[in-house]
Specification:
0% of the residues lie in helices and 33% in strands. The strands form two sheets. Strands 3-2-1-5-8-7 form a six-stranded mixed beta sheet, with no helix packed on it. Strands 4-10-9-6 form a four-stranded mixed beta sheet, with no helix packed on it. It has a single domain, classed as Cupredoxins -  blue copper proteins (Immunoglobulin-like, Sandwich), CATH 2.60.40. With 151 residues, the chain is mainly beta. The protein contains no helices and ten strands. It is globular.
């Protein structure tokens, strides 16, 4: 049975790191940023049965389904991600399109690999559904559900 992770995140103070850690050598995260740790792993439990043989694992979950809040900042920190698997925010549900579905509004660092990061400040005009994907291979990532802040 595939495990999906739905996280509704927001309102963290600058000393809070959800799903990540920092060291004194790392640049400071933006205030109120939420950090996700991203790795490329052999597919064993991705929610899509047609997933690639290797997939993105976010905070230990293959194909994690994430819920992001408009106006909040999220950092996708790569962990030795091979250059063959450039991570980006996308409008494509499958990826592998050479980045043609790249979403750029509010995003810095798309097509990250190695130990770099993608930062996503979710704009108010973002659609309700985006994806994180590999630009070179089909179905390595999964869904980013975008919601408005409550209250």
């Amino acid at each position: 049975m595939a495990l999906s992770l739905a996280l509704i995140l927001g309102g963290c103070d600058s000393n809070t790191s959800v799903g990540g850690s920092t060291s004194s050598d790392d640049p400071p995260d933006p205030p109120n940023a939420t950090t996700f740790q991203v790795a490329v792993v052999t597919e064993t439990d991705h929610p899509d049965p047609n997933a690639h043989s290797v997939v993105f694992e976010v905070d230990g979950v293959q194909g994690a389904e994430l819920t992001l809040v408009r106006g909040e900042t999220y950092i996708f920190q790569m962990g030795d991600t091979p250059a063959l698997h450039p991570f980006h925010i996308s409008t494509s549900s499958t990826g592998g399109d050479g980045g043609a579905g790249e979403w750029t509004d509010g995003v810095t660092g798309n097509f990250a690999s190695g130990n770099s990061a993608v930062t996503f400040v979710v704009p108010n005009g973002a659609p309700d559904l985006l994806f994180y994907q590999c630009a070179n291979h089909l179905i390595m990532g999964w869904r980013l559900n975008i919601i408005s802040p409550s209250g």
